[in-house]
Amino acid sequence: MGPLWEATRDLHHACEAHPVGAAMAGGAPPVEWYAQWLQALHTIHSVVDPTLPPCLHRVERLAQDLESMAIDIPQSAAAKAYAQSLVTEVELAGAAYVLTGAHLMGGEIMRRRLTGYPTTHLEWADRQEALNELKPLRQRPDIAQSARDCFAALLAVMDEMIGC
Fold first, then answer.
1. CB-based contacts of 32: which residues, under 8 Å, 6+ apart?
2. What is the pLDDT along the chain (164 residues), one digit of tens a residue?
3. Which helix (H) or strand (E) holds 154?
4. What is the CA radius of gyration of the chain?
5. Choosing a second label site near 106 at 20 to 30 A (CA), which of 25, 57, 68, 127?
6. Could you count the other beta carbons within 10 Å of the beta carbon of residue 53?
7. Rounded to an integer, what is the distance from CA 121 to the centroid of its chain?
8. Are the C-beta atoms of residues 144 and 1 closer than 8 Å to each other?
9. In this predicted model, what pLDDT tens digit does every residue of 42-51 receive, in sequence order?
10. Model-level pTM?
């Protein structure tokens, strides 16, 4: 098997091409979509963060962003189902790889584009430390299917947001 990013490339690109993903990448998603997205990430990170080094934790930062939006958003059924499915170390590591990679890499670009949106969850006390913690995950071919499952869950969240 090749690098982990190759094993997930098709689903990664599908997330970027999805109408929600494209709106986020463009820096001007509908406010409700953005709040729904943050709520879904919060749900997933609530399960993943306790298994990660503190420098990678995002749940408190996501809560700050949601609080600053002051929009009542129901919990995503797709995010809740996915979060509940994360039981094994391999499943949690696959989710951590996808989420941490997204927040660190694409998130740095998104943070600059999302003018007027709260982006505390995309800020890092020590970005290099976080990158160092991500590196071992990127070298684990055993989490390829779990990473694919995370991307598939994120697509399900996006579909849910637009009523597919």
1. 71, 73
2. 568 889 999 999 999 999 999 999 999 999 999 999 999 999 999 999 999 999 999 999 999 999 999 998 889 999 999 999 999 999 999 999 999 999 999 888 999 999 999 999 999 999 999 999 999 999 999 999 999 999 999 999 999 999 86
3. helix 144-162
4. 15
5. 68
6. 12
7. 10
8. yes
9. 999 999 999 9
10. 0.95
Q: Could you write out the DSSP letters of every residue in 31-62? A: HHHHHHHHHHHHHHHHHHGGGS-GGG--HHHH
Q: Is residue 19 packed enough to be buried (19+ CB in 10 Å), middle (13-18) or exposed (0-12)?
A: middle
- Give pLDDT tens digits for 45-74: 999 999 999 999 999 999 999 999 999 888
Tally the C-alpha atoms within 13 A of residue 92's C-alpha that lie toward its C-beta. Answer: 13
Residue keyed to tokens 């740095």: 108
E strand spans, the chain: none
Count helices and strands (H / E) in the chain: 9, 0
Look up residue 160 and give its two tokens. Answer: 């849910």
Residue the block writes with tokens 């299917």: 145
Distance between CA atoms of 104 and 12, rounded to whole angstroms?
Answer: 15
Could you say which DSSP state residue 103 is in?
I
